[in-house]
Design a protein that fits this description.
The structure holds 2 protein chains of 2 kinds.
Chain A: E1 5-7, E2 10-13, E3 19-24, E4 31-37, E5 43-50, E6 53-56, E7 65-68, E8 75-79, E9 88-95, H1 100-103, E10 106-107, E11 111-115
Parallel strand pairs in A: 2-11
Antiparallel strand pairs in A: 1-3, 3-8, 4-5, 4-9, 5-6, 7-8, 9-10, 9-11
Chain B: E1 3-5, E2 10-14, E3 19-21, E4 24-26, E5 32-39, E6 46-52, E7 60-61, E8 64-69, E9 74-79, E10 88-96, E11 103-104, E12 108-113
Parallel strand pairs in B: 2-12
Antiparallel strand pairs in B: 1-4, 3-9, 5-6, 5-10, 7-8, 8-9, 10-11, 10-12
Classes of the chains: A mainly beta, B mainly beta.
């Protein structure tokens, strides 16, 4: 029973390029959350998705950032035209639809994005 | 909006000793959950312990226990018999009732010294 899988683990992009981060939730989990962790900071919520739906994107910057969770395949967090300030660790967490309060969230190991 | 405050950026403890990490939070909600997560150098976020606000009894998981003071909005983590493997960042987190995002504190870096 694989946990939450995120790839790549490390990603280096030049300023102006696009970054695509992937997250495959745990088997049976239909809810996905993306968080961003800046150096020496806690995790900050970005977006909450269910299959084919964005439920809450209140933590996501309005420009350059987008997220999707298609019917088939992993959830994707896309950052267009990256800037140095986008350098951070991006975490994905998943939960079961009806058991988040009992089982909590399961986190992936994160993708560390470095913009050079 | 909810906020979570961890006032101790760094702490250290001798192996086998006990250490307490502080966490306070601010919310107008009555039903909620509180969590402590551990983040070792591997970066993996590991759930250490959770507490339901409607439960008066403090949660315990082996060497980890919490002191939950609802009126004071305080949620401290006690680690007994500290081990070298406990060295990590520890994050306190809040979640409203239902399937809602976690709100994290800034973390406490704990070093266990041999």
């Amino acid at each position: 029973n694989a946990g939450v899988m995120q790839n790549p683990r490390h990603l280096v992009r030049r300023r102006g390029q696009e970054a695509r981060l992937r997250c495959s939730p745990m088997k049976g989990h239909s809810h996905v959350y993306w968080y961003r962790q800046l150096p020496e900071e806690g995790l900050k919520f970005m977006v909450y998705l269910q299959k084919e739906n964005i439920i809450d994107e209140s933590g996501m910057p309005k420009e350059r950032f987008s997220a999707e969770f298609p019917k088939e395949g992993p959830s994707i967090l896309r950052i267009q035209q990256v800037v140095r300030g986008d350098s951070a660790a991006y975490f994905c967490a998943s939960s079961h639809r009806d058991r988040v309060t009992e089982d909590g969230y399961t986190f992936g190991s994160g993708t560390r994005l470095t913009v050079v | 909006a909810q906020t979570v405050t961890q006032s101790q950026p760094e702490m250290s403890v001798q192996e086998a000793e006990t250490v307490t990490l502080s966490c306070t939070y601010d919310t107008s909600e009555n039903n909620y959950y509180l969590f402590w997560y551990k983040q070792p150098p591997s970066r993996q976020m590991i759930l250490v312990i959770r507490q339901e606000a409607y439960k008066q009894q403090n949660a315990t998981e082996n060497r980890f226990s919490v002191n939950f003071q609802k009126a004071a909005k305080s949620f401290s983590l006690k680690i007994s018999d500290s081990q070298l493997g406990d060295t990590a960042m520890y994050f306190c987190a809040f979640m409203k009732w239902g399937n809602t995002p976690l709100v994290f504190g800034k973390g406490t870096r704990l070093s266990v010294i041999a």
